[in-house]
Amino acid sequence: MKTNELREMYLSFFETKGCVRRPSDVLVPKWDPSVLFTPAGMNQFKDHFLGRCELEFTRATTCQKCLRTGDIDNVGRTPYHHTFFEMLGNFSFGDYFKREAIHWAWEFLTDKKWLALPPETLTVTVYKDDQEAYDIWHTEIGLPQERIERKEEDENFWPASAPSEGPDGVCGPCSEIYYHTNLGEVEIWNLVFTQFNRQGNPPNNLFPLPSKNIDTGMGLERTASALQGVVTNYHIDTLLPIVQAAAEVVGKTYNPKGEDGRRLRRITDHVRACTFAIHENVYPGPNKEGYVVKRLLRRAVLDGNRMGMTEPFLWKIVPAVIEQMKEPYPEITETVQRVQEGIKQEELNFLTTLDNGLGRISKVFHQMKMDNRTKVTGEEAAEMYTTYGFPPELFETLAAEMNFSFDWDGYKKAMHQHGLESGAGNRVELFKTGPIEALKKALHSTKFVGYEQTEVEDAFILGIVANNQPVSHLKQTVYSEDTPPVMLVLNKTPFYGEMGGQIGDTGQILGEGKLLSLHADSPILNKLSETERELVIQTLDDMPAETDRPEPFVFDVLDTQNDSGLIIHIGHLRSGSIRKGDIVTAKIDLNRRNAIQRAHSATHLLHSVLQKHLGQHAQQRGSKVMEDLLRFDFTNSKAVPPATLQEIAAEVNQKILESQTVSQNIMSLSQARQTGAMMLFGEKYPDNVRVITMGESKELCGGTHVDNIAKIGAFKIISEESISAGTRRITAYTGMKALEYGNARDNILTEISTLLKVSAEDLPGRVDALLKEVKQLKKDLAATQKSAIPAAKELAALVEDRGNYKLLVAEVPGGSAEALRESIDGLLQIVPRLAVMLATRAEDNKVSLAAAISRELLADGFDAVKWIRSVSSLIKGGGGGRPEFAQAGGKDASGLEIALQTAKEKITPHAS
């Protein structure tokens, strides 16, 4: 059976059982801070499992794109390990449970209409205390006892060992299904029965959940491998062609049993993973998701290097990945060029330092053997990452091949000192708890009316959180700016909660001290649906009693956040007292909202115009929309030329002048696709989406906008810059800020014109003349200073021979930083294996230092930056640069003699 056929058969089978087929969630779930990448099929349903959202369905089935790096060292070595893989799953949210899950799994596996596996080829495991599952398998399915194995909690419980070790929260036993072939035993399906809430330590710490759930997972590649009778997942019909394409690119014949075979399988996995990640706009970077992509690509580059590849090659494998994966994920065909460019650029970045890095690692290993040392130090690992771009995981792998261990704690400490902590960082708990989570579970969401209204008079308070505790009432006696913020949740609100790059609204919530009546004749309650009324009554069961002397209040909203649909108003109780159930008037700061809307609508126009001028690859990577200020991040490999920026800004302003109406329409996601609305790869969209149209721009967006683009007023780009490899940022003003910025520039222009006594029109010519004059003066000065510096050959006579390297540390009179560098360049040309530091005194008791290391010494551990920094404090200065050349300046020439003597002592390879 082909892999694509298996995927479709699984999903179709569970549709016959009433499961709703849902698409794969994105690979990078930005909405979920607990993970970097989607690790399992259940991840997109976390709120469903916990009852924190309204359930549109109670049964679901998916094929989920997943990425995990926990077992990365096994990728390519074992038959079944991957970083990127697909997980088939079926789920129940308080609907079917253990009996149906087991029966349906057995039916799918053995029924002739489906996989038709011989029953005698299947065995199962159950948690040792799960008698219910055991009885279903034995009594109802008919499996003999010898084919049912009871296992401990570390094997058959989710999370593993939860009963004894935690964490507290939702958990349950699981049952695994194994398929036996002539190639051996393969686990193909795991059925998880989430039926308990763990609270505290054992014994008697598992309490039944009121609503029991099902979460199953069948690895697509692993099951396809078993069904196709191949020895490894990498030989299935959708992966072997990629392995073979990789072999062709590197000029090798694929031998599954050889070391190159393992490398080709690893390259296949890593390129497939990075293709999907970069497709979703996750590029190689120094932190979090970007760091994982960088690590995978650099590991694959290293594998290629060991097969003789010295030029970028991974990008050439991308078309093979696309060809095999386009049937289930046709959208990846739209970003082939962008993905290839992202991979190729990272290859180039790593290849520039790879050879020197490998040489340095070889030296480290040699020295470790000489020192009879078995652990790579944290400082050595940090140096390899900061200087040569070697991820510590790669260094650890190379060390393990030499039977050396790795000091991770030391590495983290060293990187912290560098201020460059990378990788995943601290992760938050999988399922959050707290008062806001409790409100979310009870209320699910807040009705947002801010598209149509900027003020509502009949809202009421459903939740109050103060000092991270839920309270039913709160009184403010003394107000100050230092008062801890309070969070309010209303039944409906015009306040926009920060989301999608648009900052949250500010404003006021006012009350006259009137409580909501919960009686049947309440006019406010009667406006609600029956379900909404029941929810409100349950939520306000601890509402304070009405008092004879109601007290008005004023609550200043300083920020508004959106937590998965629950809108949270954050601010200060300026006066009075608030209670759950208080009827309130909620009104936003309209001027501020209008300024934010101008910037947001301008962002849409900018996005559209950027793609017109730069190409379809210029996709949004992120944005921040504030009061008449926007930051827009987009994909582009190089700076946008100034002339092009001017054309872009002019076109945006031209569209503003056209005064077109902005339309907002709710439609299904499929309808939105048919209209050509722009969708961002990697974003998670609901079934029904809001399409914002303004002229040629058509995007899916939940933010607020002007109703006519003329209200943007004006648009002015103030900067365009790089924020990471392959990502540019445009910052721009709109409305009054754009006008104020223009006026300020005009004032500066007038002031400069006055100082130079020329008209504004003549300023370019006058400035050009001044620059030429300054350049000539500098040239004359440099010639004078250079004549005072001893010739390189004269300095070479002072070089000290230290065996495997040569050293020169000297003060030269009457020079400059530029002249020092020229002398050093001359020395490096005539003296091999040289470490040199020169100093010269300047006016006002200042000192300039310059240090350089011959390139052939870099692999031995010499580092000009570390060397110069080791002495710069002695002249009350600081320095920086690159390992081969560094400079420093100091304010105290009296310490120069000691600094130069110290430099001679600090230049040893291990201490440099």
What is the number of strand segments? 35
Q: How far apart are the first and last residues' alpha carbons, in Å?
A: 61 Å
> What portion of residues belong to β-strands?
25-35%
Helical amount: 25-40%
Q: Could you describe the largest sheet, including whether it forms a barrel? A: 9 strands, mixed
Total helix count?
A: 26
Structural class: alpha+beta
Morphology call: globular
**Average of the residue pLDDT scores:** 89
Round the Cα radius of gyration to an integer and report it. 33 Å
Low-confidence stretches: 420-431
Short descriptors:
single chain, alpha+beta, six-stranded antiparallel beta barrel, 912 residues, 37% helix, nine-stranded mixed beta sheet
Word description of this protein:
- This protein has 912 residues and is of the alpha+beta class.
- The strands form 8 sheets. Strands 1, 2, 3, 4, 5, 6, 7, 8 and 9 form a 9-stranded mixed beta sheet that branches. A 6-stranded antiparallel β-barrel has the order 13-16-20-19-18-22. A 6-stranded mixed beta sheet has the order 30-31-32-33-35-34, with helices on both faces.
- Helix 7 packs across helix 8 and helix 8 crosses helix 11 (336-370).
- The two termini are 61 Å apart.
Short structural description:
The chain is built from 26 helices and 35 strands.
Task: Provide the fold topology.
Elements: H1 3-15, E1 20-21, H2 46-49, E2 59-67, E3 84-93, H3 98-110, E4 122-127, H4 131-141, E5 148-151, E6 157-158, H5 162-165, E7 169-181, E8 184-198, E9 206-219, H6 220-228, H7 240-250, H8 259-279, H9 288-305, H10 318-325, H11 336-370, E10 375-376, H12 378-388, H13 392-401, E11 405-406, H14 408-418, H15 435-443, E12 447-448, E13 455-466, E14 469-471, E15 473-475, E16 486-490, E17 492-493, E18 507-515, H16 530-539, E19 553-563, E20 566-575, E21 577-579, E22 582-588, H17 590-614, E23 620-626, E24 629-635, H18 642-657, E25 663-668, H19 669-674, E26 688-694, E27 697-700, E28 715-724, E29 727-734, H20 735-756, H21 763-788, H22 792-796, E30 800-801, E31 806-811, H23 817-830, E32 834-841, E33 847-853, H24 855-858, H25 864-872, E34 877-882, E35 885-890, H26 896-906
Helix pairs in contact: 3-4, 7-8, 8-9, 8-11, 9-11, 11-12, 12-14, 17-18, 25-26
